[in-house]
Design brief:
- The chain is an alpha+beta fold.
- The protein has one domain.
- It is built from six helices and six strands; from the N terminus they run ααβαβαββββαα.
- A six-stranded antiparallel β-sheet has the order 1-2-6-5-4-3, with helices on both faces.
- The longest helix is centred in the N-terminal third of the chain and has 19 residues, at 6-24.
- The radius of gyration is 22 Å and the shape is globular.
Length: 170
């Protein structure tokens, strides 16, 4: 009987931090961009199920090289997209600290690519919006640039080495 008083105490100890996190967690930049696109273009984004688990596995598999993945896919995106409007919408929702690295728009406007970066100490967040044809993908990911550089270096082709003189034969 004496141990039953522990149940409410444990419940409160676990509930209070969860309530604080939920109350303080406003809409993320990722969700803000996705909701803005959904509202403006009257489309519905599909979130990838179990992406939190996939992100955790990716973090372990890449030895902390990749983490914090968020992905939304929009199919049947038929409305034309004004590149300036899309860029402004994304910039507003991402907020301060994000810098646009790439903006590519096709002549007809049916293809749009925006890539933003945000430094996070030794890590970097990437935010990508890519519209191609009738689909649009929105991706946010956190990467360790040093780790990725090392990983990419392992897959350098012998052709690239021979151009640099490292693998050339005399």
């Amino acid at each position: 009987m004496r141990q039953f008083w522990l149940i409410p105490v444990v419940f409160i100890v676990l509930l209070v931090p969860a309530a604080v996190v939920l109350a303080g967690s406003g809409e993320s930049a990722f969700e803000g961009v996705v909701h803005s696109i959904e509202s403006r273009y009257h489309v519905q984004a599909t979130r990838i199920p179990f992406l939190g688990l996939v992100s955790l596995i990716a973090r372990g598999a890449t030895h902390d090289g990749v983490s914090g993945m968020h992905v939304a896919e929009i199919e049947h995106f038929s409305d034309p997209v004004d590149g300036d409007e899309l860029n402004q919408m994304v910039e507003e929702k991402l907020g301060a600290g994000w810098e646009r690295m790439i903006r590519e728009t096709s002549r007809k406007g049916n293809q749009q690519t925006l890539i933003f970066t945000h430094p996070e100490g030794e890590r970097m967040s990437l935010f990508i919006v890519d519209k191609s044809g009738s689909g649009m993908d929105v991706v946010q990911i956190s990467v360790d640039p040093n780790h990725l550089s090392e990983s990419i270096g392992r897959y350098e082709h012998s052709h690239a080495r021979s151009e640099n003189g490292a693998g050339a034969s005399d």
